[in-house]
Design brief:
The protein is mainly β and 680 residues long. Helix content is 5%, strand content 57%.
Length: 680
């Protein structure tokens, strides 16, 4: 952890010291006795404010803890794949992909490695400040209590990042003093995690850590392997400390500090990448008549990557550092000024800055031929107002958001390492503008078992520093940056229903039409040459369905997303008109059948299918459909100790994750895990 991050962590945690210490001192009463005039016990949850009434108006899926901790892979992206419409940029998991390609989106609005969905952890945006990817390996599922996924653009806090929707990760409430797990798989890869909880007066502290490492599997098909081919080795760890304490009988303070590091090798020996970060946040939550949520956070991230020649198998690029910083905060107020109304007023701010530092290398001599630097800053100030109005069986929602976004200090500079002469240079002009976003919807309780809903909305996303200023190469294709990229804007609507035909079955169905104007995509402009550009639009129309059923000891959970997505192209992208966006499947479905024969037991099997998609915008490189079967078994051994067996891709399906001109990468093969778990 850097000195700056350590100092900030101490500052953020300092306000907790006094309340916690004071609570431990007691008031002189005998143990187990309270004064006659003692106030009602204060319950500290560590959570934010309760979800708004409007949550049910928009297409929303909530995952509970028992689902989150029963993933066959033990990875957060595997958990989220059970949500209709969730999509990663590539099909790779977070052990075998380049971290900078870990963008997530919803509703098949993909085709870009940057996240189009807003991902929050305890209210804090966690996307990388420079690249916009999500550090999936730094999110330990065992520390989470709930996940709420809302599809479709939104206003509200940090709404400028919620172009395709919002994924809210909430930490679990403090439970047992210790939770722990360890596992080993059929390739002798290991994972270990622990969660330690300490009650401190009426507050608590939770320390957690996780370490995953292994030799990985060959992502390269047998027919394309060479002596330099390497397994996708990985070594990642993360640690976090989260605390909460009451300040008054209605106000609590929460603080969190975390660090992570993730090292991976992809395709060839020496093709090593690392991503690491430190972050800290402090939050004040008031649950009185005038509810409020005040948050401040800071993130420090870095990324490095070495590119290996696919012909000589020697380094050609050393992207040695990409330091970036993100800072931000929000204030949300819920005043009780109108009966029947749930009003939310607030403002938020985010700023990201970073700089690429890389050297091009001669593949024969290994000498530096060119030095490159690129970077800048983006910022966004948002003001929002939202109201939920309940009128008998009808709930109406309306929200407005104004954003002032700015892009400043942008540059790219490449100089010769031998002469110092400028090889290429871009000095982008500073720019700023205001944008207005809105959303509105209604939900009616038509019958005791049937809810009907409809909504319309807009959304906004700023281009990342990576998209604006960083060119890159994924053999054999070079992609140029574009400092003139504009903001993406979404406009969409949806209608849906939630039906409970019998007590044991809940069905949800949503039809939607979402259009992203100025969608940023990698557009082919020549042989093995692409350039980031704003497409006129990507239009995605589709249907999402969810089913949850429980009959005694047997449960069934299913999700399906069918999407008809197409590019609207003109000018440079005219020949893309009517084509499906890159990396966008038409159909994705998942079905999990579970059985809990006795307390502590859990047996589950998951069937997943993803239809074919295209690697590129011209639809020349196809990724075949993939159908996988996963399994999970937890069986109690003694007390709180359980045996856990997990299986990934049990059918041994060939999962093609990348196909560029016939150069192919593969996803996870058949993998079996054996482990022990205590206290879950």
């Amino acid at each position: 952890m850097t000195f700056r991050a350590r100092l900030l962590a101490c500052v953020l945690l300092l306000p907790l010291a006094a309340p916690l210490a004071a609570q431990d001192e007691g008031d002189g009463a005998a143990e187990g006795q309270l004064p006659e005039d003692a106030p009602e016990e204060i319950i500290v949850t560590g959570r934010g404010l309760d979800a708004a009434l409007s949550t049910g108006i928009y297409a929303t899926t909530t995952l509970e803890r028992e689902t989150i901790i029963a993933s066959p892979s033990g990875r957060i992206e595997d958990v989220l794949r059970g949500v209709a419409g969730f999509q990663q940029f590539r099909r790779s998991d977070s052990r075998s992909s380049n971290p900078s390609a870990q963008g997530v989106t919803l509703r098949a609005l993909g085709g870009n490695a940057t996240s189009r969905a807003l991902v929050l952890l305890d209210g804090v945006p966690i996307a990388d400040p420079f690249f916009g990817y999500i550090p999936l390996s730094a999110i330990a599922p065992e520390t989470l209590g709930t996940i709420r996924v809302t599809r479709g653009g939104g206003s509200g806090p940090f709404g400028a990042g919620a172009l395709a929707g919002t994924i809210e990760l909430e930490s679990a409430e403090p439970g047992e003093a210790f939770l722990g797990s360890a596992a080993i798989n059929s390739r002798a890869e290991t994972e270990a995690s622990g969660v330690l909880t300490q009650r401190l007066g009426r507050g608590f502290a939770v320390a957690s850590g996780r370490w995953d490492r292994g030799q990985g599997f060959f992502t390269t098909p047998d027919s394309q392997r060479v002596p330099a081919t390497a397994r996708a080795a990985f070594d990642s760890w993360n640690a976090a400390l989260r605390t909460a304490a009451p300040l008054t009988d209605t106000v609590e303070v929460q603080a969190r500090v975390a660090v992570f590091r993730d090292a991976r090798t992809l395709r060839f020996r020496g093709a090593d990448s690392t991503s690491e970060g430190e972050e800290a946040s402090i939050r004040f939550v008031g649950r009185g008549a005038w509810q409020f949520d005040a948050l401040a956070y800071v993130q420090s991230r870095d990324f490095s990557n070495i590119v290996i020649s696919s012909t000589r198998f020697t380094p050609t690029l050393d992207q040695r550092r990409t330091p970036s910083t993100g800072i931000g905060g929000k204030f949300e107020l819920r005043p009780p000024i109108l009966e029947g109304h749930d009003i939310r007023i607030g403002a938020d701010y985010r700023r990201a800055d970073g700089e690429l530092q890389e050297e091009a290398l001669n593949a024969v001599t290994g000498r530096i031929t060119e030095r490159r630097r690129a970077g800048g800053a983006t910022a966004n100030l948002g003001i929002f107002l939202e109201d939920d109005w309940q009128i008998g069986p009808l709930t109406v929602n309306g929200g407005l958001r104004a954003d002032r976004s700015s892009i400043t200090g942008g540059f790219y500079r490449a100089v010769s390492a031998t002469t110092g002469a400028v090889v290429g240079e871009v000095n982008a002009a500073d720019r700023a503008d205001w944008s207005l976003s809105w959303r509105a919807g209604a939900q009616v309780y038509a019958t005791r078992r049937l809810d009907l809903r409809a909504a319309a909305y807009t959304g906004l996303r700023l281009p990342t520093l990576n998209e604006l200023y960083r060119p890159f190469v994924v053999f054999p294709v070079t992609t140029e940056a574009n400092a003139d990229l504009g903001n993406e804007r979404l406009r969409g609507f949806e209608i849906g229903l939630d039906w409970q035909p019998v007590n044991a079955v809940v069905l949800s169905l949503t039809a939607f039409d979402n259009k992203v104007k100025n969608a940023i995509a990698n557009v082919t402009i020549g042989p093995n040459l692409r350039r980031r550009a704003n497409l006129p639009a990507i239009d995605a129309r589709g249907i999402e369905a969810n089913v949850a059923a429980k009959f005694g000891q047997v449960s069934l959970d299913g999700a399906l997303a069918w999407t008809d997505a197409e590019v609207q192209g003109s000018g440079l992208s005219a020949d893309l008109d009517g084509k499906r966006p890159a990396q966008t499947p038409e159909l994705a479905a998942t079905l999990t059948l579970g059985w809990e024969p006795a307390p502590g037991w859990r047996v589950a099997g998951t069937l997943r299918h993803v239809s074919s998609q295209f690697e590129d915008d011209r639809q020349t490189d196809r990724l075949a459909p993939a159908t996988t079967i996963d399994a999970f078994l937890a069986a109690p051994l003694a007390g709180r100790l359980s045996l856990v067996l997990r299986g990934e891709n049990l059918g041994g399906e060939t999962i093609v994750t990348r196909n560029q001109g016939g150069s192919i990468d593969l996803g996870v093969p058949r993998t079996l895990w054996l482990g022990l778990r205590y206290g879950f």
